[in-house]
Amino acid sequence: MIDKAKGRPARRQIPWWLVILAGLGIISVGSVFADASYRVIFAAIGKGMGVTLSVAIISYAFSISLGLGLGIARSSRHRLLREASTFYIELVRGLPMLVILYYIAFVGAPALAGVLNALLSPLIKTGFIPAFQSRNFSFVTRAVLALTLGYAAFIAEIFRAGIDSVDKGQIEAAEALGLSQSQITTRIVLPQAIKNVLPALANEFVAIIKDSALVSVLGVQDLTQLGKVYAASTFKFFETYNVVAFFYLCLTISLSMLVRVLEQRLKDGRK
């Protein structure tokens, strides 16, 4: 960054909010080493970190794939694809994530088992494979599916905005050169669109980590669920939820800082 008034590189100032949060983090870590009860809570709840991260990462990876397909479909010239993707996006975006989670867990899973039984009925009747039941789908699987379907709608809109941001003149030039629609999409539109929306996609990962706490309502042993169980058994609600908040803040703030660095590098690259 250049200070235009003085013609020399401007100093990057450390934001006050980051200093305050860092101070609170140091105090929290100091409390852990000073108080034995906090160390016990950290050990008990920390086991859920792996579940929280795995649910968030897997859901994010699947929602990126599905969202990209929906975003391309919504920007398509084919009306059927455009209308179908728009219907899905508007419908899902209008529902709270908790409702989607309950619906997939207690309605979608039994329905999926019924569909699989109908499709594979010849194999089931011969005893080659057993009949599917809703309990064949673990609550972790249902939680991942719900987060995937929910966040795919939001990510699709991000991709659509990125696709629309590409200069139409480039597309017209590619058509004039005789490139097919698939070549234009994969070689010209998507590379630029993805670069434009990288910060927004990274922010969605931060959001999905926070919303992964909702899977605790299904009994999934993530950070929130383990914290709830520990607090209910020890009545140390203040200390327990301090630790839960500390874990989530460590994840989300570190990722938010990475997003800021990514945004700054992209801005510097465009100059």
Any overview of this molecule?
- The chain is mostly helical.
- The chain is 77% helix and 1% strand.
- It contains eleven helices and two strands.
- The chain has a two-stranded antiparallel sheet with strand order 1-2.
- A hairpin with a 4-residue loop joins strand 1 (2-3) and strand 2 (8-9).
- It starts with a strand and ends with a helix.
- The mean pLDDT is 85.
Strand order of the largest sheet: 1-2
CATH top level assignment of the domain at 55-234: Mainly Alpha
Number of separate strands: 2
What's the Cα radius of gyration?
24 Å
User: Rough shape?
Assistant: flat
Q: What is the percentage of strand-forming residues?
A: under 5%
Order of SSEs: EEHHHHHHHHHHH
In short:
The protein is mostly helical. It is built from eleven helices and two strands; from the N terminus they run ββααααααααααα. The chain is flat, with a radius of gyration of 24 Å.
Which key terms come to mind for this protein?
two-stranded antiparallel sheet; 11 helices; MetI-like fold; mainly alpha; flat; 271 residues
Layout: helices, strands, pairs:
Elements: E1 2-3, E2 8-9, H1 16-34, H2 36-45, H3 49-74, H4 79-93, H5 97-119, H6 121-125, H7 139-164, H8 168-176, H9 181-211, H10 223-234, H11 237-270
Antiparallel strand pairs: 1-2
Helix pairs in contact: 1-2, 2-11, 3-4, 3-7, 3-9, 4-7, 5-7, 7-9, 8-9, 9-11, 10-11
